[in-house]
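Work Package 4 report. The design task specified in the project plan requires that, given a folded chain encoded as structure tokens, an amino acid be chosen for each position. We show below one input record used in the internal validation round.
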């Protein structure tokens, strides 16, 4: 049994056995296999299992992939900011797969171990006003489905309307994705699990 150094209140949404599994390589279409060769664009040596799982519904998968790529990796927010938003959303949604995937990605974008610990603790763990407002926006979008006036004012002092829209869509998109991941019970890939556990080892007192 894996015991994580960080876990949200109530623990992660995990399933003893996956409800849905990604298809094996032989069941993947030529188009999907061709796309998999571009996984380096998404910071991966191989395509994550969430992609192969979602490709069980190709009609939705390809449209989703185009949309998702406008947020990550080709969004307009700085990569580290984007990853911190995704991590707080994953934490709020108790999605271990999303959390594990994006801990690894975040570290590559310059997010520090201390930043990730702060993300797990919530907005008040940040001294920086903008980061605190971003984390509050994540919390408010998940709990209230609406960013408060105070948080909106703090964010609008820093971000254009275009980026405010991107921030809200980013949170909503990864909340949606977390629901799919939690409900399907998709486990982390072994190499991503290894990277997550290496992070946990580093932060242990």
């Amino acid at each position: 049994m894996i015991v994580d150094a960080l876990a949200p209140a109530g623990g992660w949404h995990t399933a003893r056995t996956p409800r849905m599994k990604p298809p094996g390589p032989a069941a993947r279409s030529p188009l999907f296999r061709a796309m998999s060769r571009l996984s380096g664009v998404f910071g991966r040596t191989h395509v994550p299992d969430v992609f192969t799982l979602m490709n069980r519904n190709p009609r939705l998968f390809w449209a989703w992939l185009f949309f998702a790529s406008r947020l990550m990796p080709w969004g307009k927010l700085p990569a580290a900011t984007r990853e911190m938003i995704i991590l707080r959303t994953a934490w709020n949604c108790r999605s271990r797969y999303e959390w594990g995937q994006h801990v690894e990605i975040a570290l590559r974008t310059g997010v520090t171990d201390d930043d990730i610990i702060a993300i797990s603790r919530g907005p008040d763990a940040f001294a920086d006003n903008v980061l605190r407002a971003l984390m509050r926006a994540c919390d408010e979008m998940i709990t209230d489905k609406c960013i408060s006036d105070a948080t909106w004012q703090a964010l609008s002092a820093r971000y254009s309307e275009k980026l405010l829209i991107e921030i809200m869509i980013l949170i909503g998109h990864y909340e949606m994705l977390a629901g799919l991941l939690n409900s399907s019970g998709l486990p982390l890939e072994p190499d991503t699990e290894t990277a997550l556990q290496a992070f946990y080892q580093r932060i242990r007192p």
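Residues 41 and 72 are 10 Å apart (CA to CA). Validation will be extended to a larger panel in the next phase.
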